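User: Fold this; tokens only.

Assistant: Input:
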Amino acid sequence: MYRGRLPREELPMNTRDVVFPPGRRALYERNRYSPAVRANGFLFVSGQVGSREDGSPEPDFGQQVRLAFRNLNAILAEAGCTFDDVVDVTVFIVDPEKNFEKAWEIVPEFWGEAPHPTLTGIGVTWLYGFDFEIKVIARIPG
């Protein structure tokens, strides 16, 4: 059995199966990242914030959380998923002592039924002008 490295020209080409939500491709191309990538039956979604169409933050915290979930759901839908397919969630919250309970009052509007996905909540000091961000890993149906 050969255990060495293949010469560079024999390595498989690394391609990403990227999912873009409708109408937001320029935003991701400008910022040089993929909104989501399909790999091995899973969808890995970049952190979604409550950004308006022009990219600016929604100023009201509750509406910012709702908009982050709507932006997330647009990506999930484009990949043929729903939030029920999500298996892992990471949320980032600025000033979690003040904002965590406020966010968690809104989450049930989008979260779905038990059993719920795993969750990691991280308190941060800065999110590029936003106060809430959510990133997920989802199982792709079928």
